[in-house]
Amino acid sequence: MTMTSQGMNRRALLRGAAVAAVATPALVGKGIAAGEVTWRVQAHWPKASSSFTDSLGVLATALEERTEGAFKLELLGAGEFAKGPDIYNIVRKGVVPMGSISPSYIIDNAEAASFAYGIPGTLRQAWEMEHAIKNLGIEDLVNEDLASDGVRLMSEKVLPTEMVVSKKIESAADFKGLKIRSSGKMLDYLAAAGAAPQFVPGSELYQSLSSGVVDGAHWGAAVGAQSMSLWEVCKYHYKPVLAQTTDAYIMNEDALADLPEDLRTALLDTVTNRFFLRSAEYQHKEAIALSEGVANDGVEVMQLPQDVLDMLAAASAQILEEEGQKGEKAAKAADIYRGLMKDLGYA
């Protein structure tokens, strides 16, 4: 064989390798090329909630773009198939493959769920909760328990919890007996300071406030109050932050396993990336929403009186202790909180 023919053969071989290299992603992504997948997602957010659009809607768009249209999410507002705590069961049973929840809905399913929701009166900044959830292992502890149900939880964002009420609170006496829409351990937290909290699904919240069934609520903080029109009824927005908390997605593990590998990876990666992006974005939107509420809706930003804060502080320590006694995983979660709070100088 001549040098010329050897060179030609070598160049042909390299061209073939280049073609193979270009073709490899298509082979890896054969699930994308093979056809479309559509998942129904039952949200705990009403369609009026900002998170239905800015969290779930943005996720759906990002996933569809990443998979070139092969993976679509059909979004269901609160109550279309189920609402509130019932969403966990329809995902567990495979009625829908995915949903959104507050971790407070699954405190009977996972020992560490209250720590994923957020122990009131403990962590103060969003980044602290993000760190505890993703880096220090709170989410992993929750999933250890959910695995037996064939469900996986992935945190959706960290957000602050603040109250809006229809009555001014100037003392513990004013706080006593206030009917506050709440959920999870926040029910115990508010009750310890004398309020009369009760759970109301998001889809029924505005009506409950406007009819006087409840006197106030927390649905996130400013963004939630604005998007759910709570300030139309409740003109007093109270600080400080009661808790840093989370929303979460839950997925049926069998449905995940049935996905082509590339689509499964696309979903899990997109949810993980959106957690950090959405958490940061949410803090920015909180500031904007509160400013708009003051300027446009006549909202008054108030501070809870010190005697109420003192009772809440005592309740926080008690709740942290009680939640940590629920079992081995709960104890580990409590230690994560205590260690972080010690490092931050909070305890």
Helix/strand layout:
Elements lengths: L2 H26 L1 H5 L2 E6 L7 H17 L4 E6 L9 H7 L5 E4 L11 H5 L8 H10 L2 H9 L4 E15 L6 H4 L4 E2 L4 H7 L12 H6 L5 E2 L4 H6 L8 E17 H6 L2 H37 L2 E4 L2 H18 L4 H17 L3
Parallel strand pairs: 1-2, 1-3, 5-6, 7-8
Antiparallel strand pairs: 3-7, 4-6, 4-7
Helix pairs in contact: 3-13, 9-14
Shape: globular
Determine the structural class based on helices, strands and strand pairing. Answer: alpha/beta
- N-to-C SSE string, H for helix and E for strand: HHEHEHEHHHEHEHHEHEHHEHH
How many β-strands, per DSSP? 8
Task: Report Rg.
Answer: 24 Å
Which strand-content bin applies to the residues?
Answer: 15-25%
Report the span from N to C terminus: 80 Å
Can you walk me through this structure?
This protein is of the alpha/beta class. The longest helix has 37 residues, at 261-297. It starts with a helix and ends with a helix. Helix 3 packs antiparallel against helix 13 and helix 9 packs across helix 14. It has helices at 3-28, 30-34, 50-66, 86-92, 113-117, 126-135, 138-146, 172-175, 186-192, 205-210, 222-227, 253-258, 261-297, 306-323, 328-344; strands at 37-42, 71-76, 98-101, 151-165, 180-181, 216-217, 236-252, 300-303.
Summary keywords:
single chain; 347 residues; alpha/beta; 15 helices; 8 strands; disordered N terminus
In a nutshell, what does this entry contain?
The protein is of the alpha/beta class.
